[in-house]
Write a structure and sequence with these properties.
7 helices; 2 domains; mainly alpha; Glutaredoxin; two-stranded antiparallel ribbon; 166 residues
Length: 166
C-alpha cells in the first residue's frame, strides 16, 4: 500500500521480458514450477481496500482462504483488488458475508487498524510486499527456496542467547 496511489490504482508498465500471459524471470519461473498462474496485471491497485477486506477476513477466521482467493483473483484472473465489488466476490467465494465486508470497507471500519499496521511496518524498515523476517534478517520480494533455507540455517547455527527472534 502506498498512500500516494490513487483510489483507482495506476497503470503498470510491463517489465522487461514479460508477456501478457506470464511474468518473466525468477518469479515467473518459480510460479510456473509451483503450479501457480502469475499474469502481469494491467494496473497496480490501491490496496487499502484490499488490506481492509483482508483484516475483515482475519477477524472472521478466514484469513488464509481469503488471501488465497485474492491471490488467484489478482494474478490469475486479472481482477482489480482496489474494487470493492471484486472484494465482495472474493468474500462470497470463501463463505464470508460479502455485503457486510463491503460495508465495512466503504465506511472504513478497519482503516485505522490497517494504517497502524502500515506505520509499524515502516518503522521496522519494511517497504514492500512480501517481506520476510527470519531472526534479524529482513528481505523483500519473492525469493527462491535457497534464500529461506540459508537464512534459517544461519539462525539455527547461532547460539540460542545470540538469536534475535524479534
Amino acid at each position: 500500500m502506498r498512500p500516494d496511489t490513487p483510489k483507482e490504482g495506476k497503470e503498470r508498465a510491463p517489465r522487461p521480458g514479460e508477456t501478457p500471459d506470464a511474468l518473466s524471470g525468477p518469479v515467473g519461473t518459480q510460479a510456473g514450477e509451483s503450479g501457480l498462474t502469475m499474469r502481469p496485471p494491467k494496473i497496480t491497485p490501491n490496496t487499502l481496500y484490499s488490506l481492509e477486506a483482508t483484516e475483515y477476513a482475519q477477524q472472521h477466521g478466514k484469513f488464509i482462504e481469503y488471501h488465497h482467493e485474492a491471490y488467484k483473483a489478482y494474478w490469475a484472473d486479472g481482477e482489480d483488488l482496489g474494487d470493492i465489488e471484486v472484494l465482495g466476490r472474493i468474500a462470497t467465494a470463501v463463505d464470508l458475508d460479502a455485503a457486510e465486508l463491503m460495508e465495512h470497507v466503504k465506511t472504513g471500519v478497519y482503516s485505522e487498524t490497517v494504517m497502524d499496521q502500515y506505520q509499524q511496518a515502516l518503522q521496522y524498515g519494511i517497504r514492500g510486499i512480501p517481506t520476510f523476517v527470519v531472526g534479524n534478517l529482513l528481505f523483500t520480494g519473492a525469493q527462491p527456496y535457497d534464500v529461506f533455507k540459508s537464512a534459517i540455517e544461519k539462525i539455527l547455527t547461532q547460539e540460542p542467547e545470540t538469536r534475535d527472534t524479534a
